[in-house]
Amino acid sequence: MRVVHYSTRLGRSGGGLYHSVSGLARAMAGLGAEVIVAGGREARFEEERHVWGDLPLVTHPLGRARYGFSPGMLKQIASLQPDILHIHGIWSAGSIYGRFAKKTQVVVSPRGMLDPWILERRPRVKQLHARFFERPMLERAHLHVLCEHEARSVSAYMPGAQGRIFTLPNGIDRQSVLPDQPRSGALYLGRLHEKKQVLPLIERWERHSNKLKLTIAGWGEAGDETAVAAHCAGKKRVRFAGPLHDGEKDKAFAAAEFFVLPSLSEGLPMAALEALGHGCIPVLTDACHLPELFENDAAIRMEADFSDFGAVLARLEAMSAGEKADRSAASIRAAQSYLWPDIARRMLDHYSAILGGEAA
């Protein structure tokens, strides 16, 4: 089976897709599938390429707008003759390639981009783009969603697609966790985007914390990083560590007691899953779409409007060493449901069902 994965940005500017698409593609190749990755590259891509391992890449340079259109990409994808063309993300040139890929089966992962919060941003532009690209593509594609919430959002947007929707979460690599490693404080790690509510988190943390310290590790546009650094300046219990990647990121997860993500909108957050694998105790909003972690008491819920934040932070500060150890162990157990080899096998099985006409 030949699979082509397309993602608009193959570098870190792609946010969670940088790790979720590369992890899925590598795991599929490890199971014997023929996998090729296509997408846009930016100026520092050679520093970021390692996440794709030995996978063959078909790339084109991205312009400033990062929309991702390349006149030759559609022809290049067609020349690869994939059995499955898997488009990751919408509202970009990937939807054009999926729309006009007539001779292959198309799978689309919206990656949270049909979430109501996202649809409300620049709605007129999205409506126009959807008329020509997303809706014609989704009318015939199979749709991979990350969680039940996303399945409902996709069904609401494209009611006729309900029979072609299937659910599989993001995955993570198995982590090596030292049982007696010292931990302290809390960590936010991820993109510095308004939907993550990093600036309100900084202000609320400084206001309500008595002793627990928060590290912000993130990346984004230069203006976003400048704003976060300015908000952290002079704070006693919040510091900005800048962007952390690869080994530095793993060390930050391993050193933190808690992982905090006060997000307004997610597909399924990679950073939260990675935190689980490292034994961090997650503090999440419902918009992170991991209800099973609340049901299994592996995560602590906070309201996205910060209305209960004082009480949540007081609970974290009062938590005993024994409860922290138990919750950390519960996080590691919960992470076993999200390992890439199993996710990749299930995805390949669904591809086979599509190609065999067995999928709806």
3D structure, described in words:
The protein is α/β, with parallel strands linked by helices and 360 residues long. The protein has two domains: 2-171 and 339-355, Rossmann fold (3-Layer(aba) Sandwich), CATH 3.40.50; 186-338, Rossmann fold (3-Layer(aba) Sandwich). Helices cover 41% and strands 18% of the residues. The protein is built from 15 helices and 13 strands. The chain has helices spanning 17-30, 45-48, 73-80, 93-99, 116-119, 123-138, 148-157, 198-208, 222-232, 246-255, 270-277, 291-295, 309-318, 321-335, 340-355, and strands spanning 2-9, 34-41, 57-61, 84-88, 105-109, 142-145, 165-167, 186-191, 214-219, 238-242, 258-261, 281-284, 300-301. The strands form two sheets. The protein has a seven-stranded parallel beta sheet with strand order 3-2-1-4-5-6-7, with helices on both faces. The chain has a six-stranded parallel beta sheet with strand order 10-9-8-11-12-13, with helices on both faces. The longest helix is centred in the middle third of the chain and has 16 residues, at 123-138. The mean pLDDT is 94.
Note the main attributes of this structure.
single chain; alpha/beta; seven-stranded parallel sheet; 360 residues; Rossmann fold; 18% strand
- How many runs of DSSP E, i.e. beta strands? 13
What is the radius of gyration? 20 Å
How helix-rich are the residues, as a percent range?
40-55%
Count of domains: 2
**What does the largest sheet look like?**
7 strands, parallel
- Strands of the widest sheet, in order across it, are 3-2-1-4-5-6-7
Mean pLDDT: 94
Structure annotation, total helices: 15
Q: What is the H/E string?
A: EHEHEHEHEHHEHEEHEHEHEHEHEHHH
Structural class: alpha/beta
- Beta-strand proportion: 15-25%
What ranges have pLDDT less than 50 throughout 5 or more consecutive residues? none
